Description:
Elements: E1 6-11, E2 15-21, E3 26-32, E4 37-44, E5 49-56, E6 61-70, E7 74-81, E8 101-103
Parallel strand pairs: 1-8
Antiparallel strand pairs: 1-2, 2-7, 3-4, 4-5, 6-7
Amino acid sequence: MSRHPEVKWAQRADKVFITVLLPDAKNAKVNLEPDGDFTFSASAGVEDHLYELKLDLFDKVNVEESKINIGVRSIFCVVEKAEKGWWKKLLRGDEKAPHYLKVDWDKWVDEDEDNGLGDLDLGGMDFSKFAGMEGMGGDAMGDDLDDTDDEEVSKPAEENSENPDEHGVKSEAAPSI
């Protein structure tokens, strides 16, 4: 008997993101049909358990434009919709979604918040350009603030203890055993 892997999903107006979470999957096979039939099978685990999945997606998809990436920890699919528009759910039919199907909140964008930047890939962003932000109302790292709470305050009883070292830290006598 086969098992079901955990599946996460999110959408944009033109695509659906489906992530099958199955670490160390072997012989992974993904099939996508234009009518929205999505099937997956692979083996994983020490005992090579068989994992299978069949999803009847809400509407038709564009198989040629869809992309599948089989990684070490998961299988990531970008399924292009045949017609642009928001689906009210991932699966067709009126039955309740299976327990292994969850919303991918890391990728989720509400329909009214989608501004077309869903394809924005931050992986190639040059973060070194942030180094020249000195003109943004103060020092780039905020070093111009007085941090008086970071200074060490000595108690009156400590005034008579041994001299501080070169870092200003007072050493105490080692306890006797």
